[in-house]
Structure formats: structure tokens, C-alpha cells
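WARN retry 2 of 3 for item q-0093 after timeout on previous attempt; input resubmitted unchanged.
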Amino acid sequence: MSNAVATTPQRGPFVLAMQRFLRRPIAVAGLVVIVVFAAIAVLAPWLTPFDPTATSWTSIRKAPSVLHWMGTDENGRDVLARVMFGARASMLAGIVSVAIAAGIGGPAGLLAGFAGGWVDALLSRIVDALLACPFLILAIALTAFLGPNLTNAMIAIGVSTAPRFMRVARAATLEVAAADYVQAAVSIGNPPWRVMLRHVAPNILPPLLVQASLSLAAAIIAEASLSFLGLGQQPPSPSWGSMLNAAQRFLTQAPWLAVFPGMAIFLCVLSFNLLGDGLRDALDPRRR
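OK item q-0093 returned
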């Protein structure tokens, strides 16, 4: 009579990462807040009855009330509506600029780390030169050169963020390329491009994903800063940064003009940072 051997089903890496992530309530809370902001950005036209650009000279700088939950601004526009529609500019700027940065920096770092030699040296010196300039100063310079609008601001933020992705991708590529399974793939005659795309690229995605979540927070701050300086979203279209710029003249008479967009930036950026920390812990098998 043979003994039955009980087998435990193997859990995939994605399931293990999700379990580690769900064990971190602060990171989950950050994800929930991000989902709420994303829903507000998408559903803004249906969530508020007010036009964010419509002025009302009879409702100038009204305090928060039952009709206007966050008050009105210096032109009589509903602040809640402008905060909701401003979420669109901030979320869009974050997503598009990080996509541009990952699209430039990820492949460049992968190529530099895998090819080595003069390719690595050339790309690394370019990155060093870009990193020598402060991130926000470079974004301001590029936006001023391209022209002040939201599209150019997203391009400038993406290009300014790309060196960080290149550094992360290069470091991850060097680590993965030294693994035994990559060396085995090379030894059996696989061409370099196949090894790079098939065996190395998928395994450098976790650190790039963490970098993306953290860069989203930085991109939102950068977009707000550019809009504050008049280089991002142009009036009368709402943006959290431009709302803060307009509110600085009325801090004593109407503090709610600065409080609510400032709180929106704070909560959104904090949530992305908490999500990034949670993803870093969840995607690293050495962390428990």
C-alpha cells in the first residue's frame, strides 16, 4: 500500500508579491487614495454641477458653504470644481511624464548595462551630465524653451526624469546579467539581443515599477511647480499649481483658496510615496 504524498500548490511570484503588499495597510491605503483621485479626475464633469472656468461676480471669494463646499475664488469660480478638474492635469502630467521617462531611460539603461564598454561609458556620461543639473531647474529650462503649456511641461518633466530610470535600469541589468540562468542562455548560443529582451528585460521590471510609482509623486510636484510659475497648465484651465499661485494674494482674506489645492497635492503625493514604498517591499523577496 503506497503512501500518498501531499503536494502543496506552488504560488507564482505575482501572487506572493500581492500577498506581501496586502500585508502593508499603509501602502494599501495609499493605493485607495490614488484610485479615488483617479476616479475624481475621470468623473469630474459628473461629480460637480459647476463649470470650473465659469465666473460669477456675485460670488467672489465666498467662504465654504452648503452650496460651495470649498468656497469660491477671486473670480467667483467654485473651488471644489476646480480642484476636481485640476486632478486631471496633475494625474495626466504624472502618468504621461513618467511614461516618457520610462520609455527613454528604461531601454537606455538596459542597453548600457548589457552592452557595457563604450556604449555604457557614453550613456553613463550623458546621464551624469543631466543629473548634474537639479531636476526642477532642468524641467523649468526645458519648458521655457518649448513653450508654456501642459503638453510641453509633461515632455520637460519626462526628459528630466529619464536619467533616474536609466540609472535604475542599468544597475538592475548589471545584477541580472550576472545571474546563472543568463550566463547559461549565453553559453548555449542565444544571440545577445534575444538574451537581453527575453531573459534580462522582464527581470528588471520590478525596480522600474517602484521607480515609476515614486517618480509619479515627483512629477505631480513638478507639474504643480511649473503651473505655479505660469509654465504649465494655462488659465483659465484649472491646475493645483496655478490655483496656489492665484491664492497667494488672498492668504489672509480667503485662506481656503490655498488650503484645498495644497491638501490635494499633499494627499496625492503622499499616497504615491506610500504606494512606492509598499511596492518596493512587496517586490523584494528578501523583505517579509
